[in-house]
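B., you asked whether I could sanity-check this one before it goes into the benchmark set. Here's the sequence:
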Amino acid sequence: MATVTYSLLGLHCNACVARVTGQLKPLAQLVAITLDPMEVTLTNPSVDFTALQKAVADALKDPAVKKRMDAQGMYISGTSSADFTKQIASEVAKMKSVAASANISVN
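And here's what the prediction gave me:
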């Protein structure tokens, strides 16, 4: 049996776990999600990482999950890891420019 474990940040309650599990069940033989640490382990997954990301993003768009996250002051973006990586690289470049303009040394 092949198993794959992914970090799954942003889940804080069993309602979120249930919705994400529901979205992932059709994509693997077995789905196990833990909150501490926040991880999902899939046994014999039938899809790639991009499809899994989409399933999780779809689960987090559920109105009940969104309402609960909003109440906790959380913002769910549902972006891919590639988009997030681009965003962070852009922010780092911007801050380096700001530091250089202000003559601040970055170690």
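One thing to flag: Residues 6 and 72 are 24 Å apart (CA to CA). Otherwise nothing jumped out at me.
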